[in-house]
């Protein structure tokens, strides 16, 4: 916190009533009672301790978020690799299935030809 104000006034109360307590990022006027507390050394120490704790908590949070982002990035890269492998494997499986389908079709055609030959032979055998 930064304190600014009219320091030319003689009485402390007058000075505090015209003093602003500026919080970084925004200006807020506080009551003279709150300002008196900020001049109390133990209160000031507590405020500094809370600010330090808040700063440390913020840094810890930033580190945690950074670590999470790194883990998510690694996971994403690993997933992309796995997806690539799956696509490759899927392509190979598709080719194998097409090959098996062609072999099966050829096998069925051979069975049909053999069946026709059998009936033709059977018909000829009966006529003899």
Descriptive report:
The chain has helices at 12-17, 32-39, 41-127; strands at 2-4, 20-23, 26-28. It is mainly alpha-helical. The chain has a 3-stranded antiparallel sheet with strand order 1-2-3, with no helix packed on it. A hairpin with a 2-residue loop joins strand 2 and strand 3. Mean pLDDT is 78; it is low at 1-29. Residues 69-96 form a coiled coil. Keywords: Coiled coil.
Range of helix content: over 70%
So what's the overall shape? Answer: rod-shaped
Secondary-structure element series: EHEEHH
DSSP, total strands: 3
- End-to-end Cα distance: 118 Å
Residue runs with pLDDT of under 50 for 5 or more positions? 1-29
pLDDT averaged over residues:
78
Largest sheet: 3 strands, antiparallel
The DSSP helix count reads 3
* Radius of gyration of CA atoms, rounded to a whole number: 43 Å
Please give a handful of descriptors for the protein shown:
128 residues; mainly alpha; 3 helices; 79% helix; disordered N terminus
Spell out the blueprint of helices and strands.
Blueprint: E1 2-4, H1 12-17, E2 20-23, E3 26-28, H2 32-39, H3 41-127
Antiparallel strand pairs: 1-2, 2-3
Task: Briefly say what this structure is.
The chain is mainly α and 128 residues long. It has helices spanning 12-17, 32-39, 41-127, and strands at 2-4, 20-23, 26-28. It contains 3 helices and 3 strands.
